[in-house]
Structure formats: C-alpha cells, structure tokens
Specification:
The protein is of the alpha+beta class. It contains 20 helices and twelve strands. The protein has helices at about 1-15, 20-25, 50-60, 65-75, 95-100, 115-120, 130-140, 145-150, 150-165, 175-190, 195-205, 205-215, 225-250, 260-270, 280-310, 310-325, 335-340, 345-355, 390, 430-445; strands spanning about 80-85, 85-90, 110, 170-175, 360-365, 370-375, 375-380, 385, 450-455, 460-465, 465-470, 475-480. The strands form four sheets. It has a five-stranded mixed sheet with strand order 1-2-8-5-3. It has a three-stranded antiparallel sheet with strand order 4-12-9. Strands 6-7 form a two-stranded antiparallel ribbon. A hairpin with a 3-residue loop joins strand 10 (about 460-465) and strand 11.
Length: about 475
C-alpha cells in the first residue's frame, strides 16, 4: 500500500504547491522555425505538465501507454508535452532515433531532470554535455571488448560464489534482489576492488531508494521517493569517501595498483590542464558508475529468469547451448572469452528480453538551437524524450511484437535504430559489452544449476524507472541432479 500512497501524496502536494501559479500561468511564445507549427499535443497542468501521467503509466506496469495513446491521438510520430517542469517533444520511431543520435552535441545534448542533479550534486557544476565527455575520457580501456576479456574469469568466479551463497540449497528464492546483488558485486569488484560480501551488501542496501527516486517528482519532503534518494546518495558517498581515502593511502604506500580498477585510474589521472578531480567529485562519478553498472543489468537478469520460466522451449535452447560449453570445461575451470563467443542463442534470448522489457525506457535531450523536423518546429531550450518502446513493441517494426522470438536477432538482426536498449550514436552506453558479459555469465551459471517455476504466475510489472517485478519475482527451484 505504501507504494500507492507515496506517489499519490506527491501528486497532491504538487497540485497544492502550484495552485496559485496556475492562476497566472501563460504559455510562452516561441519563435517558430520557418513558420512551422509546434508538434501537436497537450502540456497538461502548469509546471507539472504530464509528469504524473508519465510516471503513473510506469507504476501501473504499462509505460508504453503514455507513448502509444498520444501517438494514436495525434497521428504523429512527434508530439508535444511537458515533463518535469519542462516543455518537451517526444520523438518516436527509428527515423526519429536516427535523427537524434546523429545530431548529438550538434542540435541536442544530454539532459536529465532536476531530480538527477540533486541526487548527484556535483553534476550541477558543469553541463550534462561536459559531464558526459569527462566521464567517457575518464573510463579506462577495460570497458572495451578486447580489454574485458581478462575479467570474464573474475565475473564467473563471482557468479559461482553468488549462486552458492544465495541460491543453492533453497526451495524458493526472490530473484530480483538476488540479481541486484550479483551485478552489484561484479561492479564493486571491477570499479573499486570491493568484493567481500558483507562490504558489498553494506554498499548495496541504499541503492534501491536511489533507483526509485532518481527519476521522480522532485519533492524533497520526508517519505517521498525523491527525499529517500537524496538521503541514500549522501550515505553511499560517505562510504565511498572512506574507500577513496584509504585507496589514496594504499597507492602512496604501493599497496594498491595504479591499474587495478577505475578508482585508481580516477585518482591518478589529470585533465588536459593538469588538474585532478577532488574526492567528492570522484565519489559522485563512482556512484554513477555503480548505478549504471548494476541497475540495468539486474533488471535484464531478472526478466531473463521470468521469460525462461514462462517459455520452456526457450529455456531448453539456452540449457542445451550452455551445457555444451559447461561439459567442454575441466572441473573448476572458469569461463573464457572463447566460451562467451559460443553463446549466440543465449544472447539472442537476452536481446529479446531487452526488447520486451528494456531497462532503459528512453532518455532525455536538451535542444541547443531551433530546428525543424518532420514538418514541426522544435524551439531551443525544449527537452526531447525518445522512447525505446516506440520501436521495440511497434508491430510495423517487429511483427507480432509481444511474441517472444529470439530469431529476430539472427543474421544481421533488426533494422538500424529500431533496437535501442543501450541508446545509440555518440552517447550509446559505453558499458554495453560489459553488460553483455555479466548477463551471459549469469545465464550460464543459472541454467546449468536449475530449472524453476514462478510462484506468482501473473505477477505485476512496475516501471520505476526500470521494469521491476512487483513482488521481486519469487521462483521455485528444481536443481539439476548432475551439474558441470
């Protein structure tokens, strides 16, 4: 019930807070490019716009309804709205994706709602564009496919420990929190060299509140998701601060390696002006990486378990492929790059899961200059939201879109700009290959150990801001009698 009352209370407070503003609200006049009209649409309530409609569609388990209801109403692949206090255009479809991704840092740049800036306060010091450039320069080479090869064994070792401690000898487990533990454990190990389970658990505990509040109605009142996210981010940064201070000591005493993880890299790398990041800024960057390094992948892992439980023929295909790999290994031998390359069907399955339940529902852009597109004028300063679901579950793009069909990814796969779980263009997620590896390692260790069935056959899915099984996806385990 709490999950219901908190967003309802937030909405009520917003209505009261802005009631006087509503009396004096006037639409801003915009300079229209080439005399073209603004996109069709409705900006909703003053200031709050249609934020509640967008968020509540996710809370109700159907985030795509916000998009498709308006596409049908306005008969346009672009429509106007207002989200998080900003005038916005929603761009839908492959052509729109291509236009946005191709014009990154030309006509548009990355933008996040004010709630994100308050959860990550150092990001207010520079523009989101500068932050993105800085982070991509800061990310060391280990996120590249060729560099990640040497971490596959580490991932597999953590996966084995994870299943031994969290799954084995249990009749039932709650999948979603376990998936978060698995992906967070890997992120902690590779980003800050923390792998002791109790330390990992202590860091993980506040992250759920951040995930729920980072894209939310920005009301900083006790009990709201936004308030909880701010408090949790402060708590995590305090813990990371201690880790950072100790690492500086260890580096000075040569007890830590300069190349062992991204934390050492950040501490020892200066910008083009010879300036080093301070500890608080590094803490913010690590916090962002830990969120990006585990939240989306944990959602994907949980939904893989969901779909494999529902589709025994798909499970059997994954099991066959993974057992061929497992049976080719010596006892105790860890996975290698060559093994990952053999997991073609498993990755097709994972991609189909990412199509139907994309962790990244979409993303925001800020308009840098007036431009026109598809017969509409888009003013400078507007925000643009692109939606993965506008192509992922569009029957014109994917026939029978709700049918689970891994064969969609055979050969060259879907048409360009239609399958976008990792975004696209210059801002395509740099951790795409990292996510692929941890998902496949998870699938390998999962199916070679168990079959399973859902305890709640019709469990509701909530999107907040990622898709999450409302009850955590409880499953009943049936261990295989012989494991590789």
């Amino acid at each position: 019930m709490e999950l219901f009352y908190v967003p309802l209370f937030s909405f009520f407070v917003l209505l009261v807070s802005f009631s006087f503003h509503y009396l004096f609200y006037k639409n801003k006049d915009y300079n229209l490019t080439d005399g073209l009209p603004l996109p069709p649409g409705n900006t909703g309530w003053p200031v709050i716009g249609e934020s509640y409609q967008l968020l509540s569609a996710g809370w109700n388990g159907h985030p795509e309804s916000f998009i498709f209801d308006r596409l049908a109403k306005y008969s346009s692949n672009i429509f106007r709205t207002s989200i998080f206090g900003e005038p916005a255009a929603v761009f839908c479809g492959a052509a729109c994706n291509k236009f946005l991704f191709s014009n990154e840092n030309k006509l548009v740049e990355a933008w996040w709602p004010d709630s994100v800036n308050k959860v990550f306060p150092s990001s207010q010091q520079t523009s989101s564009k500068e932050e993105a450039i800085k982070m991509r320069k800061m990310l060391p080479g280990f996120l590249k496919p060729e560099a990640l090869q040497r971490y596959i064994g580490i991932m597999d070792g953590i996966a084995r420990k994870h299943f031994e401690s969290g799954w084995d000898n249990k009749d039932e487990v709650l999948v979603f929190p376990l998936a978060k533990t698995y992906t967070f454990w890997i992120a902690c190990r590779l980003f800050v060299s923390v792998e002791e389970p109790s330390q990992v658990a202590k860091l993980l505990e506040p992250f759920s509140a951040i995930a729920s509040g980072i894209i939310s109605v920005p009301i900083d009142l006790p009990g709201t998701p936004f308030n909880k996210a701010i408090k949790s981010s402060k708590k995590i940064r305090a813990m990371l601060g201690k880790i950072i201070k100790q690492r500086k000591i260890d580096l000075a005493e040569e007890k830590a390696s300069a190349t062992q993880d991204i934390l050492s890299h950040m501490l020892l790398t200066s910008d083009e002006n010879g300036k080093f990041m301070d500890e608080s800024e590094i803490g913010d960057k690590i916090l962002g990486l830990l969120i990006g390094g585990h939240d989306t992948a944990s959602s994907a892992c949980a939904f893989i378990v969901k779909f494999l439980a529902e589709l025994p023929e798909i499970y059997q295909g994954v099991y066959k492929e993974q057992m061929e790999i497992a049976n080719s290994k010596a006892p105790g031998e860890l996975l290698k790059w060559e093994d990952i390359q053999k997991m073609k069907y498993s990755w097709n399955v994972a991609c189909e899961v990412l199509r139907l339940a994309p962790p990244l529902q979409g993303s925001f852009r800020n308009v840098l200059a007036d431009f026109s597109y598809n017969g509409f004028s888009i003013p400078k300063g507007w925000k643009i939201y692109w939606s993965a679901n506008s192509t992922h579950i569009n029957s014109d793009v994917f026939p029978e879109p709700m049918k689970f069909d891994p064969a969609r990814f055979d050969g060259s796969g879907p048409a360009p700009f239609t399958f976008v779980p990792f975004g696209g263009g210059p801002r395509m997620c740099p951790g795409k290959e990292y996510a692929r590896l941890e998902i496949l390692v998870f699938m390998h260790n999962l199916v070679k150990r168990y079959k399973w069935e859902k305890v709640i056959p019709d469990e509701k899915i909530v999107v907040n801001p990622m898709p999450i099984p409302a009850k955590g996806l409880p499953v009943r385990l049936f261990p295989h009698k012989v494991q590789a």
